[in-house]
Amino acid sequence: SVKPMISLGKRHNFDARQNRGGGADIKLCRFRYNAVKDLLQKPATVLIFLGVERTKNPPTSSSSSSQMEPGAPDTPVWFAINADEEAAELLKRCEDKGCFFPKTPNRDLLRLDEEEAGVVAQARSVLAWHSRYSFCPTCGSPTSLQEGGHKRSCLNPECRSLKGVHNTCYPRVDPVVIMLVIHPDGNQCLLGRKSIFPARMFSCLAGFVEPGETIEEAVRREVEEESGVKVGPVQYVSCQPWPMPSSLMIGCHAIATSTDIKVDEDEIEDARWFPRQQVVDSMFRGAHQTLVIPPRQTIAHQLIRHWIGINSNL
What we know:
This protein is of the alpha+beta class.
């Protein structure tokens, strides 16, 4: 039989993780079924199925395929549940006593490896959606959980959300554009900072896509609103899920058609053009005292790194 493992989601912004190597590398603390069995009996508990963990060494075509079967012994199956207990009490349930409670969960998420960050992103987004959609957004009636936690259906048989094609009962994803604006000369980029950023950190501008708006239109609008800079050509580069609570960051490069900066202080506190060499020094040498680049796990970092790569021999 499958040995289920539980990843605890966040009703109290809780992640249980193990500290490896002095805090530079952390991973999820896995809760087996017996450790959380009593939580599953509570009526308010939401349990969602996340999926079966990938086999580390997939069999060749000539070998047995039983290793890849979802029900194969020792194949970890990931679930997520919400939890009302305090973090300290939840940590006592974990067999691995190296777990800790992060004081800055949003930043600590960036310290997970790619696979485990994906687990947290999926769990946090879906659980956050469940916490907001206990009642039908169409008629206000209670909803029930279906399809392993990836759908909620209205319990009112007369509700129009049950008729035809509707998307009000599926987890939402909010598109956000994040863009590196490149100076017309090609050798400077526009970065901004918010007051909540660490000292000297500047990042790419970003904003939500509005209804009826294309990605390119959203990039141009957000850049002009926040910095006063006008943008022409826009090119998609890559994307990144960001479960705070349910965003999809759509990364782009954008070429500026104007250079004068007029900051909207309600959005950001500062924006500047940074020469490429200054960005290179900060990213690769840590040598610049006035600029800190976002960490490598962020899409902002990757957009900046991509720009440096296409404009140099690095």
